[in-house]
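Lab meeting notes turned into a lecture example. A postdoc, R.K., suggested we walk through two folding results consecutively so the class can see how the record format repeats. The first protein's sequence and structure tokens come next.
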Amino acid sequence: MPRPSAFPSAKWLVAICGLLLATLATSQAFGDTTKEPSDSYWSDAWRGWHFYEPPEPDEPSEHPVSPPTPSRPSKPSPQPQAQAAPQAPELVQFERLQKAVESYRNIAIMRPTEANVRRYMELEAKVVARASYFADVAQHIAWSTPELDPTLQGRPVNAKALEVFDRDQLTTRSHSIATLGKTHVLFFFFRSDCPYCHAFAPTLAAFEQRHGIKVVAISMDGGPMPGFIDTRVDNGIGTTLKVSQVPAVYLAQPFTGKIMAIGFGVLSEAELVERITTVSTPASQAMLPSVNRQIVLR
């Protein structure tokens, strides 16, 4: 029996050599896959023209550049605050007293013991005494200073002075109404079945004679009114003015069509004088422009 050789036989050597040659040929035909991706992209024809090869990442720089920091506007330096003016000592005492009164009162209300209520009442008495002394000083100053005396400003409070004031006011206003009567008339809206209209009619007739302003009586129901011969029947002006209550008195200026309400119900002569002189002033007309109406008078 032949002894086995320590070396491979010739057949095995031929097979191994063939295998190595085949491997080398395949490597040359398809390219070496161990090359860099960028080289294999052009050398490997089997990948085709549309094969995508991602690019290599750039190597990081040794000195990275940080993004620029946006500049912020510098804050203005705070201005030194002006020191508050020192408060007067009287105001400090007043505020202290005011807080004390409020505190004592609240404590006495929440816990009305004898000590708490007494403490509040004693402090309140001091405050009342101080206020009374202030009133006495103010009164003496008013007596010695006419421009500061309230009894001499406007309508007086003394009975005799009030009588003189009312008489003087009536004379002055009567002249004003007489002047106003040259360009204005009074519209008196009434109904013949209204007892208040019949009671008010004599006052208006006397007012016309005394102050010289014409009164035009307008009947809402077509009936007459004693004391007014030239009574007119309402031709729609009452509806335009929305007269819903009689008696009603309006002050009208015929050539401009301006008309203003004087009042409703029974009025005295003094009330008529005061209201007519008041509403006829430019200041009063500017104060309540919605009260003034302008219509076509026929």
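The second example is placed directly after the first for contrast:
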Amino acid sequence: MVLSRLRTLGYANVLVHLGNGTLGWPEHAPYDGIVVMAGGPAVPTALQDQLAVGGRLVLPVGARPTRQTLVRVRRTSDTTYAQEDLGAVCFVPLIGTQGWPKAQPLGETSAW
């Protein structure tokens, strides 16, 4: 359905994958850029590993699901990364294997 809609809109060079976003899509790596639109507790190593050397990963990271720092990670070699703080942000929680363990209602304050 999604591919049909994209093709109707004139997009023919799109691949769609439904899965755990914290694990990325290793079959199509390496990537020059990855943008994550949900905040996680740490930078997922699976996503870092899928960057090409010189590639960038941008995502919100924080100790609490409701307060993060926007982080840019650059892969500088096969085994090294540089990380930059781009400022305070607040994104929806990243849920998955390398994200937050489960979603909680907004009214629940124990972990938020």
